[in-house]
Amino acid sequence: MLDVRKLRLLRELARRGTIAAVADALAYTPSAVSQQLTALERETGVRLLERTGRRVTLTPAAHGLVEHTESILALLEEAATDLENAARALSGVLRIGAFPTAIPTVVTPAIVALSTDNPGLGITVVELDPASVPDALRTEAVDIALIQEYDHVPVAPHPGLQTEPLLEETVHLAARRTESLSALRDTPWIAGTPGTLCHTLTIRACEAAGFTPSIRHHADDFGAVLALVAAGQGAAFVPDLAVSTLPPGVTLTPLPIHRRTHLAHRHGTTNHPAVIAARAALQNAAQTALP
């Protein structure tokens, strides 16, 4: 019989590309990952990996097994959901992943309501950059999470995950005075860390306006971003949830750009009672998060 843990490793190798990346994501050593995959080949009696020097690629048979693995994991999640539904009250631990600006405005009111209605349910909040949410869900580091996309940075569907709309915000141009975007082509910019959605948005939105931004500062906390704008250090893009407290000297200009937030969870957990309760609580909190 196939070992689900080994199948999960094969699936992650198909997604991440290297044994070292799989080991890092799942807290294994590279040698342990390699040994488990070799054991899986032995158990199946089929060659799953092609090894060329230090490189490893999946065979066609391995890719087919990965497709079955997604279905197998979803079925296991459904089985666990059925067991939870048989219980009279919610229990265990629910892990919620969220980006920083959503924690005080959406997640905190939601977990207060969840805890009040379900005192036996333990709730853990994990702060995550939206770009890392799919991996956190797939590796079961969190059970439900908030995932984002911007108009200029659409996110492709993620295998094994199911999403639903939660919130849509206007993105504003933050500067010392009211300006058009194109008028700031020679202004320094403040953007998120390279690799984040905010950093990519800054580049693509400015390019759409006809120029490449000169990014002087990198900051992922919007409070820090707005403080830098107030200090005359540059311009930045900020969404609605980030502007509840505006420093003196900062002017916001609404742009025809939107940030869309979705709830995401693994296939097979849609009907899990804790996930159902969390989805409802987060949807209710999102309705009052914006003015």
TrEMBL record:
HTH lysR-type domain segment(s): 2-59
**GO CC, one annotated term:** protein-DNA complex
Question: What are the record keywords, sorted?
Answer: DNA-binding, Transcription, Transcription regulation
UniProt-listed Pfam families: HTH_1 (PF00126), LysR_substrate (PF03466)
Molecular function (GO) terms for this protein are:
DNA binding; DNA-binding transcription factor activity
Listed Gene3D superfamilies: Periplasmic binding protein-like II, Winged helix-like DNA-binding domain superfamily/Winged helix DNA-binding domain
Keyword Transcription regulation assigned: yes
Q: Which SUPFAM superfamilies match?
A: Periplasmic binding protein-like II, Winged helix' DNA-binding domain
Q: Which InterPro entries match?
A: LysR_HTH_N (IPR000847), LysR_subst-bd (IPR005119), WH-like_DNA-bd_sf (IPR036388), WH_DNA-bd_sf (IPR036390)
Q: Which family does it belong to?
A: Belongs to the LysR transcriptional regulatory family.
This protein's name: LysR family transcriptional regulator
